[in-house]
Predict the 3D structure of the following.
Amino acid sequence: MQQIGCLLRFSPDGRRLMRFEDFAQARLPALLRYATLLCGERESARDLVQDVLTSALVRWRRIGVLDEPYAYVRAMLTNEFLSQRRRRRVVTVPLTFDALDGPAAPAQRDFATDASAREAMWQRLAGLPPQQRATLVLRFYEGLSDAEIGDVLSCRPATVRSNATRALAALRIEPADSSFATERRQ
């Protein structure tokens, strides 16, 4: 378990307690990055995190005593994402990522320097079914094992592997796409 400074407190029965405010302050950047990868848009990710943290605050007495409250909140975030995808959505006009980066945005190196390749990957990820997309994000961004992903998504590890295989197959470069076909031949 990753301990965050001196933020841990103990209840009379010896269980660890963490204040919700301390948890939110420490984990908000990680939750926003994870939600952005799930949603594909920062504004939708912010809304999703806000909804989940509101629900977590109501249940914090139960969540705060868990060994890994972050894992529980991450599962809440994943389930809310999957639930929202099933509901009717209001169509929004997404802003560019550059317009959303401001002085408060976390400074991280962007490994996808080619904007067109990054945009093509976002479009391919957005085209995946929500379960497959969540599987890839949990595996490659969060670094979870198949069993851990299965716990988050409430499915068996074999289903996780199947979802990952199908998602990766869907993301592979298709020969019909001429711009990518020349890159594959080289």
